[in-house]
Structures are given as structure tokens and as C-alpha cells.
Recover the amino acids of this structure.
């Protein structure tokens, strides 16, 4: 009989929950807005309610565990969320609380690590023992698999590739440092560049402003992608700079880590998939020849489901191993 | 009875050979100029001769293996040197040749990886399971230990931290890319900056030129270090920029890899040890707080012996394991 696990993707704006089977296939899923994220108890109860609705609906599936991915810093053994900036959580005992309410064993991981695990085991990285995932969304996150093992780092922070410095005198990043990869190529940086350019020159920014209904603050990644498709000069020049930064950042990663596969995902990559070919060509041109001999640069395969699938499978694998060793 | 191994450090200018005991202690060592490096047969015979002199002298020590570290790209299983730029070697069967001449089993590794192994097992990284070594010499090399294992990468190139991009519009690197860590903070880049500054302004470059006996091409790291000690303004301004680049590069490494220890070695660090404190303060200021919670930034402990000790111990460990499994 197959085992099943619950996967939970907890973000600042929405909660997604899914029942996943041991082959990484989603049986059913549900989502709801996060609401007031700061109220940890309310968020945890909301998650538990959503999970119970799903498990009630699928009584025949044997759910043995639940896994959650959260945008923040997680203490690996305790499952305590040390800090989640989007939700303004500090030291929330997420594992203990959720496990109690669900009456299931629970694993808690960083959301990017969960998504990377999903891509590794069931997506673009299947069967690969040395890979790096780079997710370019609002920010840039990543994960590293080396010699068949997830790289956690001593402080459980390994894979924070969005905060690799690629322009030491570059723009200030949200982290306080300068010239981080995500401060040049993350979604928030692209929007910043577009808004600044439009404010500096309303003529060249005409189309972007129009697509944003005349509100500079509404110039989003989607707006820029639309203008780009129409061949708009300003959008093209902004994205040329972003593409250059993406090549520099991924080249840096390939040189330092030496993966077999570089997997590229996240909202920006999904919205502008032509970037992937550009990055592949750039990395193969600029990275060390020895490091790119048989490097594959590929798009992520699980799209916005990588998080729930990965979180579910991390917990399923973890608790199946524990049960097996009993 | 103790086992011993031969460690060999093969560089572009000199060959160093040592007998090392299983505690990582050097019993005796010898060195000779590399001579015409391009003649691989001659270099290998020279190494074999030097090793035989040492083993003759220490007949009572049971030497069970030899390990060599070479500046270049090594195929891990075969011990073939794919490419060694300093020696202009391509596809040299170093393991096979040397093993035949020495009548000993031989391991071949990249020299930086060997030095990192030495520091990890017998130097500043003893007992640590997550560390990064950064060696700042003429270039910048490095090595990564993650979760108690050396990180090799799929192409055996992991740890090439000297070619992480830290200034995407920066100076051209020897590798062909722009703004690599070593193109801003490696010994060759420091000399380039000093020579350019002296040529641009002979007045401010007066002391540097004098210390180099009036020959711009002789402005070396030692010359700059001497001028720095005398409080020379140009040397200070050059090294301020280098220090800034060292902070950016190591911050990038700490964010991406998340080690417990950052070990700093190499000629530049040995010559200007005050840089280590500066890097520690910079990394703790600019890297992610979660990644530096208990990070230690420490100087390498084995100095220019890390290479021979590491190469010897990699072979000793490798062949003891094989013998044990027989």
C-alpha cells in the first residue's frame, strides 16, 4: 500500500496544501490567503483546518506525515522558525504546534530548500547527484546538492545564492550589503530599475507607465514582460542588464560549486523563459572550461508545485526512514 | 607500527617533497627547482629522484604511499593531469608514471585541494565538518568541506572561489571573464594595480619604485607590503581596495556555502596578517546574520607546508582504507 504525505507551502500571501503520493504526484490540493501573517497561532490553525479538510476528503489515502516549507530561517532539529521576515515571526515552534494539531509527525524546512528537494527528486534534477537550483522570483533563492546530499551548511543557511556579491559597488540590497545577486536580478530589483527609469524619463517610459495604468508603483514584472514582448526599448534595456547580471551570478555559482545541472526556476524565469538559453550561453562562455565540460542548464519542471511536493517528500522520506530503522 | 606517506607539492617554480607520519607531522623534507616544467618526463624523474633520496635516508620509516598536489585540473579516478597551466601540461598520466617509478601507490590531486585537506585534518580546521579555505597567493584558490566531506563537484572543480564574480564590470581576469575575485584581490591583480598606479603618477609611486630598484616590473607583493608598513599613501590606498574586495568575496562565499570556519591562508595573508581581522569584521558586518551566528574566521595554520602534508595524508588515508577493506 502506498504512503502519502501532506505538503504545505506557507508564504506571505497564501498557504498551499497538497496530498502527495510516494511518487511525488499531487492527489489533491487546496489554498487560502495567509491573512494576518503576524498572528502565528491563527496561521497555524488555518493550516491545520485546510489539512483536515483535505484528509477528510481522502480518507482512503494513508497519510503518514506532513512537511512544511516556509520563507525564513529554520532551526533544523527542532523545527523552530527562528525568523520569517514576511510573516514577522521570531522563534515560532512551528513543528511542535502543527504536529500537535494535525496529530501527525511534521518536518519544517526553508521553502526554497523544499522546492529544491522537489526539483531534485521529482523534477528537472531527477537522478542527478550534483546540482544547484536558482529560483529567481521577487528575490533570488537557491539550493545545492553535492555528491547526492543536500548541502545545509553549519548554520542551515547554505544555498543563499541571492546574496552572493556580484557588483561590490552596486545597489544596496534588502540584506544591508551592496551588489548582491538579487539586488541586480531579483524581481524587486527589476521593478526598482524600471520605476527609476520611468521617473527619470517619462517619454521612454511611456509604454511601461501606460501598462501600469499610469501608476509608477504598479510597474511590475508582468508589466515589464509585456512591454518586452512588444519590443519596447526601455524594457529591453532593463532586461539586458538583468540578463547580464544573471549570467554573472550563475557563472559565479558554477565556478564555486561545479554542479552537473544548473536548474533555473521562479516567477521571472517562468515569465521570461528566453532568459534560460541566454544564461546557458553566457555561463558556457564565461565560466571555467573545466567546470562546464558537461554542465546542463535546464528550466525547473515542477513550476509553482515544487514547494508542496518537496515539503511533502522531505517529510515522507524522513519518517519512512525513521520507521524503517525502528 | 606507524605508517608514513610521501607528500609532493609540484609547482611551476619548485618541487617540495616530504615524509609525513600518520599524525600529519613532517619527518624530513627536500626541495628542488622545477626547471623546464614543460618536459613532463624530466619533471617526473626529478620528483622520483628526490623521493628516493628521502626514503633511502629514512629506511626505518614504513612508507606505504605517495600523494602529489599539482596546480591544475586532475581527473579524479585516473590521476591524469588534464591541464596544468603553469607547467603547460595536457593529459599527463602522472599517477601511472610516478607510481611506476616509485613502486608505491600514488594519489594525484589539485594542489589547493591538498592544502585544504592538510588544514582540515591537521591545521586550522581540525575537527570541523563545515569549512571553506581561501588561499590568497598569486591567484585565489579554495576548498570546501561540507558535512564532513570534501566537496568535489561533478567535474572535480568545486572550490574555485577565485573565479567567483564580485565586480561584473571589473577588470579582465586570466580566465577570460571579468571581475573575478582573484582579478581584484589576488597577488597578480595587486601587482597590476600598483604598477599601473606608479606609471600613472611617478610622484606618489616614488617609494614603491625605489623599493623595486627603479623597475616598475619588479613591484611585487613584498614591495607593497614593505611600503604599507612604512605608511606609504599609495600602498595604503591599493591595499584598502584589495581589503574591500577580500571582504566582498569572502562575504559571498559565507552566504552561499554557510561554513562554520573560514580559513584564510596563502602568501598575501601571511605577508599582511592584519587583513584577517579586517575580513572577519567585514564578513560579520555584511554577510547574512544567520550565516555568521557562530562563524569563525581564522588564519591557516600549516603555512607553506599545508600542500605536502595534505597530499601525503590524502594518499595515506586513501590507501589505508583500501588495505583495510581488502
Amino acid at each position: 500500500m502506498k504512503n502519502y504525505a501532506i505538503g504545505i507551502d506557507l508564504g506571505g500571501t497564501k498557504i498551499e496544501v497538497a496530498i502527495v503520493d510516494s511518487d511525488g504526484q499531487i492527489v489533491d490540493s487546496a489554498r487560502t490567503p495567509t491573512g494576518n501573517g503576524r498572528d502565528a497561532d491563527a496561521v497555524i490553525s488555518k493550516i491545520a483546518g485546510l489539512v483536515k479538510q483535505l484528509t477528510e476528503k481522502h480518507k482512503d489515502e494513508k497519510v503518514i506525515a506532513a512537511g512544511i516549507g516556509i520563507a525564513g530561517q529554520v532551526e533544523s532539529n527542532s523545527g523552530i522558525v527562528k525568523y520569517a521576515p514576511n510573516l514577522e515571526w521570531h522563534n515560532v515552534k512551528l513543528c511542535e504546534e502543527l504536529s500537535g494539531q494535525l496529530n501527525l509527525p511534521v518536518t519544517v524546512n526553508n521553502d526554497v530548500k523544499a522546492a529544491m528537494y522537489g526539483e531534485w527528486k521529482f523534477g528537472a534534477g531527477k537522478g542527478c547527484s550534483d546540482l544547484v537550483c536558482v529560483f529567481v522570483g521577487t528575490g533570488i533563492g537557491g539550493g545545492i546538492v553535492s555528491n547526492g546530499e543536500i548541502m545545509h551548511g553549519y548554520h542551515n543557511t547554505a544555498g543563499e545564492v541571492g546574496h552572493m556579491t556580484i557588483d561590490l559597488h552596486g545597489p544596496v540590497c534588502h540584506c544591508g550589503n551592496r551588489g548582491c545577486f538579487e539586488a541586480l536580478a531579483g524581481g524587486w530589483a527589476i521593478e526598482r530599475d524600471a520605476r527609476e527609469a520611468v521617473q527619470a524619463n517619462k517619454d521612454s517610459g511611456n509604454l511601461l507607465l501606460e501598462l501600469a495604468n499610469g501608476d509608477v508603483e504598479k510597474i511590475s514584472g508582468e508589466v515589464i514582460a509585456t512591454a518586452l514582448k512588444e519590443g519596447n526599448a526601455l524594457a529591453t534595456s532593463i532586461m539586458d542588464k538583468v540578463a547580464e547580471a544573471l549570467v554573472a551570478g550563475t557563472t559565479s555559482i558554477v565556478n564555486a560549486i561545479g554542479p552537473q545541472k544548473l536548474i533555473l526556476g521562479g516567477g521571472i524565469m517562468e515569465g521570461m523563459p528566453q532568459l534560460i538559453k541566454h544564461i546557458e550561453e553566457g555561463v558556457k562562455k564565461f565560466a571555467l572550461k573545466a567546470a562546464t565540460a558537461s554542465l546542463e542548464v535546464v528550466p525547473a519542471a515542477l513550476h509553482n508545485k515544487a514547494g508542496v511536493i518537496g515539503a511533502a517528500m522531505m517529510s515522507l522520506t524522513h519518517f519512512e526512514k525513521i520507521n524503517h530503522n525502528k
